[in-house]
Sequence to fold (126 residues):
Amino acid sequence: MDPSLKKRLDTLQHYLSNLLAIYHSLDLGSQTITSIYSAFQQKDIEDYGEVGTVNRQLEISFGSRHDGPVLFTECGPALVQVVEVLSTYPLKDPTSAILQKLVDDLTTSAELPFSMNGISVHTSMI
Fold:
């Protein structure tokens, strides 16, 4: 994996892992996020390709990123699993602009609650 992508995925994982510090009242359920893996249908992969299927399923889970940052409705280990999904598929298509943008959009969205609340989450050790 490209070292810069690995660092960006590590940063995303770091933010997602620490969201609970901000979102005390969010549901810690895993229905939405863990369904990302189980929702991959062979027909979707045939129709959209693997990258398109990942993008489509993440938009179903998180909503469109078109109008601004993703608003997370849950946090905890299930949410962090999205990094595993994003770590797997760029290996198959490391130049995919869609997957690169997904990583960037989710990282920006995960960082936003910390910056809005004046909380520093140190990423220098990543």
Q: What stands out?
A: The CA atoms of residues 48 and 56 lie 9 Å apart. The helical segments are 3-18, 31-38, 42-62, 77-92, 97-116. The longest helix spans residues 42-62.
